[in-house]
Amino acid sequence: MDEGDGPLLRFASDLRALRDRAGSPPYRQLAVRAHCSAASLSVAAGGRRLPSLAVTLAYVQACGGDVREWQHRWQLLAAELAADTAARRRAQDAGRAPYPGAAAFEAVDAERFFGREALLDRLVGLLDERRLVVVTGPSGVGKSSLVRAGLLARLAGGPAAGVRGVRAAGGGATGDGPPGGGVPGRGAPGGASAHGGHAGRRPGRGIGRGTGAAGTVPVALLTPGERPMEAYTLALARLGQRAGEARGGRGGRAAGVSPAAGVSPAGPVLVVDQGEELHTRCRDAAERARFLDTLVAVAEGRADGPGAHGPGTGGLGADAFGGGGLGEAGTGPAGVGPCRVVLVLRSDQAAALQAEHRGLAAVVRGAVLDVGQPAPDELRRAITEPALRAGCTVEGALLAVLISTAARQPGALPLLSAALLETWRRRSGNALTLAGFQATGGFEGALARTAEALFNGLDPADRERAKAVFLRLGGRPPTGAAGDGARQPVGRREFDDPGVPAVLERLVRARLVVLDRDTVELAHHALPQAWPRLRDWLAEGRETIVEHRRLAEAARSWATADRDPELLYRGGRLEAVRRQVAAGELVPGGVERAFLAAAVRAAAADRRRARRQSLAVAGIAAAGGALLTLASGSRIRRVLRV
């Protein structure tokens, strides 16, 4: 067999070479070691088709090979062999895929969006009762999916109506959000059946089908971007246009917009998605304040808010609506009536934004919906229901692996959606199988590809910052007994070095890191082993990582104990850490820098105190010597007199 005929043949040839190095045991003997049939092992080394991962690893282990290395090789080969087939199917299956992959769910995706119907009902209930509702949660938990494919689809009367979003200049359309912006089940409520309703609902009352284009609630979607007031003006112009279309479709009835199923007729809805951009992208504090003032004015029904003075100061003026101007309440386009607001933002920014704007904090009190990790049953529906609607089934073994993995990973849900799409493209007949999932490289393969692509796209300075972030997060020991459990989250304050917050945001958008209120952690606990570059970093700097962990723990203990000076480093330990910091081996964070600075000051104070004590002792000794000299001289004189 020519080893150059293709990757599959080379793989099989290397398996045979591994068996030769093990002494060429007969396949029957090898089968006993591998707990696998001799026929399966023989086929694996034949090169006619790719063996399963289980058979490959059994073969390698029986021959004394490196199981981890061969697993990585198998995953790469499986992905390579499946690429052509997936490309052909991608063209054939355009528009038919039951999963959106890494792209965000939108309102048009409602018919393939399942899980967390109860959460959507809670959001709709809040919006019925309150004028401004905040949807918050950690990054990657599905807030945008909940609002876009859940709430907006219901408000807009189903996928056919569609929702167009805007972003301030310098950003893309909201429909082109960052990869992994929405996934099945991640706070992704309101799955619609093929007939348009939730399970147990009458047709026409679910997300999948609403009341039709003529009976929709006018909605507008924006993301703040760098200039939130500009995005606000454009969104409200769109809202006015949609309100006019709705009125025209019913013979010109003013403000009589028929609500979508389950939503009260309380007027149009403005959705501000990715509200954390008010801090992460908008650098103008004054514009941010005007934007929040406007949202609060809308929620409180005030006509004197910043939005009442035209597009330049709030975007609610007549120009924004083609001359329509404000309604009587001063809260929306003329003739539409009061406007409701949904603000979606990451939990790590929610407290800061409310602390910065007391009016916002007062308005949203009691109107906050926290989106958490989906329950196993919600994950099951998110995985199986879209496949069923597409005429496919999900193998039980695959379902068990997906649920067990996604349920215990803080940010595995974006990967779940992407993995499901690739698995569907590699389906066997109409079945999504575990073998197909493994052929994609699984979660680990997707993680490694994403991390490597992001790292290669950074400039040299940001690469060093990213490396420091990954080492800080990945260097902590896992809590699981087998070493594969969760790693303890790291405090957000440890990532406040210049340039690091911006890099952290890029890692969050790539779904590699999860930000919660005060903590940062890896999106997937397998990343330190799945990504070869990070694995090498951790292996090369093991001793430094251990020292860094000790420093971090000492700094936290010192800060917790009200900066007790007795807990500071001293002597040789302090000098050793200072040398590592000077050499760039250790990169201390905010609390650690303060800890080391306090230790250096304390050491300097100790040296000054020691010098003063030495001088005092020397002075006392000199004075004692002088007294002895005087005493001796006096004794000598007395003797001479005698």
TrEMBL record:
Q: Membrane-crossing residues?
A: 615-633
Q: Which residues form the Novel STAND NTPase domain?
A: 98-159, 218-565
UniProt key word ATP-binding = yes
SUPFAM superfamilies associated with the record: P-loop containing nucleoside triphosphate hydrolases (SSF52540)
Q: Where is the composition biased (Gly residues)?
A: 169-194
Q: Name one GO molecular function term.
A: ATP binding
* Pfam families xrefs: nSTAND1 (PF20703)
Q: Where is this region: Disordered?
A: 169-212
- Quote the InterPro entries the UniProt record gives: nSTAND1 (IPR049052), P-loop_NTPase (IPR027417)
Q: Does the keyword Cell membrane apply?
A: no
| Record's keyword terms, sorted | ATP-binding, Membrane, Nucleotide-binding, Transmembrane, Transmembrane helix
Q: What is this protein called?
A: ATP-binding protein
